[in-house]
């Protein structure tokens, strides 16, 4: 006998139904066939042949994520179902998945104190996904001013590590540091994560940038973040 669905499961199913247009779009069938032809084995490394084309980062109706070949992978149905359960936070009869890492997205304008917040709160063994730290690891010689040619590689490295959280691991907690001024940015980067928004006042961020000798363009980036954030707040449903 099937177990009754919880209120949260009903809500998740209703929300997912609004994204079904992606699979009815004329672009989806050829893209799906391309992925299955290019990836003969399940990308979760279980050894089974794939049957489902999965979005590595859930698209949530976002057109760019939905039809981005780089965001697609071939999975067998059991691995896909397990990944979906992790993303929605439910497995089996609606119980929260045991052992899943707590993911926290820490966001705010440049110089708002994101990295300092994570240093103060992360524990030994926690995963920290930080754009600047990845940039340095990939060859940038400056902690905050990275060559434009490196940026696509930094982005792919960040996305690959974030996507790895969807597979089996032994982490207790993960932290993602990003600017993410829009709510949609935050949902795309870390769906279902706890969000810490450090809305440090614009003038304080600017003061810190000047004090710390941040690179040219930082103050403009602070101003841009606040413009975008305020506009997003004005258009967000109350």
From TrEMBL:
Keywords: Endonuclease, Hydrolase, Nuclease
SMART domains in alphabetical order: HNHc
Residues of the HNH nuclease domain: 30-81
Molecular functions (GO terms): endonuclease activity
Tree of life domain: Bacteria
Family as reported in the entry's similarity comment: Belongs to the HNH nuclease family.
Record-given protein name: Putative HNH nuclease YajD
């Amino acid at each position: 006998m099937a177990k009754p669905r919880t209120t949260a499961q009903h809500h998740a199913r209703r929300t997912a139904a609004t994204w079904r247009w992606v699979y009815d779009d004329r672009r989806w069938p050829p893209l799906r066939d391309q992925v299955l032809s290019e990836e003969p084995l399940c990308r979760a490394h279980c050894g089974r042949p794939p049957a489902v084309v999965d979005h590595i980062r859930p698209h949530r109706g976002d057109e760019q994520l939905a039809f981005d070949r780089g965001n697609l992978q071939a999975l067998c149905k059991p691995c896909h179902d397990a990944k979906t359960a992790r993303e929605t936070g439910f497995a089996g009869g609606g119980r929260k998945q045991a052992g899943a890492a707590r993911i926290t997205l820490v966001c705010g304008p440049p110089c708002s104190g994101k990295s300092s917040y994570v240093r103060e709160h992360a524990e030994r063994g926690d995963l920290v996904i930080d754009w600047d730290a990845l940039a340095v690891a990939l060859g940038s010689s400056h902690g905050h001013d990275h060559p434009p040619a490196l940026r696509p590689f930094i982005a792919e490295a960040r996305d690959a590590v974030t996507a790895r959280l969807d597979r089996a691991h032994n982490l207790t907690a993960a932290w993602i540091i990003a600017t993410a001024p829009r709510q949609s940015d935050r949902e795309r980067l870390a769906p279902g994560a706890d969000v810490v928004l450090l809305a440090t006042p614009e003038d304080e961020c600017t003061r810190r940038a000047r004090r710390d000798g941040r690179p040219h363009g930082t103050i403009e980036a602070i101003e841009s973040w606040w413009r975008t954030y305020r506009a997003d707040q004005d258009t967000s449903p109350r």
